[in-house]
C-alpha cells in the first residue's frame, strides 16, 4: 500500500511540476511564435504598400484588386531618371536654361549642339544627359530579392492555404477639405494564429480591443477611415 501511495505521490508531483512549467513556458512559446508570424505578415504588408505606392505614381490611383497589383509588379515598368552634367554659371548668366538646353540636345543635331556651347569635347558627347530608363517594376521595387514571388503578395503567411489579405481603396476628405485617396490591407490575428493556444489568442485579441480607439486585432497597413500616410499599425 505504501509503495502504491509513493508511486501516486511521485506521479502527482511530476504532474504538478509539468503544469507549473507549462503555465510559465506556454505563454513564452506562444509569444515567440506570434512574434515570428507577425514579422512575416508585416513584411508582406510592407511589400503590398511598396507596390501600391508605385502603382499610384504610375497610374494615379491605388487598386483594391490583387490581380491588378500582382500584374503591375510582374509586368509593369518603372522609369528611372538618368541625370548627368549641369550648366555652367556662365551659361546660366547668358540666359541658357536646362529646358532650352535639352530642347537643343534632343534634336540630335551635333553641329547645333556645339554651336550652342552644349558639347562636352572630353566626353565627345552632349554636356547634359536627362533620360528615362524603364526597368521591370519587380527589379526596381524589390532589388536584391531575386526570389521575390509577386504571386504571393495576396496570401497571408502562416494562414490556412488560400487565405488572402483584405484590401480596399477609398477617398477621404482631409480636415483642410482636400480630397485624398487611401488604401488599406490587413489580416486578422485569427487568420494566421488560429492554430495556436486558443485561450492565449483570445487574451491577445481582447487586449487590443480594450485599448482606446477603434483598434484592429491584427496587422494592418493604411486605413480607409483616416489619412495616415499608409502607416502600419505596428509602426
Quick overview:
The chain has 235 residues and is of the alpha+beta class.
What does this structure look like?
This protein is α+β, with helices and mostly antiparallel strands. It has two domains: 30-75 and 144-222, no CATH class; 86-127, no CATH class. Helix content is 46%, strand content 18%. It is built from eight helices and seven strands; from the N terminus they run ααβαααβββαββααβ. The chain has helices at residues 2-59, 66-75, 89-93, 98-105, 110-115, 137-141, 189-192, 198-209; strands spanning 77-84, 119-120, 125-126, 129-136, 166-173, 179-188, 218-222. The strands form three sheets. A three-stranded antiparallel beta sheet has the order 5-6-7. It has a two-stranded antiparallel ribbon with strand order 1-4. It has a two-stranded antiparallel sheet with strand order 2-3. Strand 5 and strand 6 (179-188) form a beta hairpin. The longest helix has 58 residues, at 2-59. The protein is elongated. The N and C termini lie far apart (63 Å).
Task: Supply the helix-strand structural class.
Answer: alpha+beta
* Gross geometry: elongated
Question: Mean of residue pLDDT?
Answer: 90
Looking at the chains present, what oligomeric state does this protein adopt?
A: single chain
Radius of gyration: 29 Å
Major beta sheet summary: 3 strands, antiparallel
**Beta-strand share of residues:** 15-25%
**What is the count of structural domains?**
2
Number of strands: 7
The helicity comes to: 40-55%
Number of helices: 8
Distance, first to last CA: 63 Å
Order of helices and strands: HHEHHHEEEHEEHHE
Major β-sheet strand ordering: 5-6-7
pLDDT under 50 segments (min length 5)? none
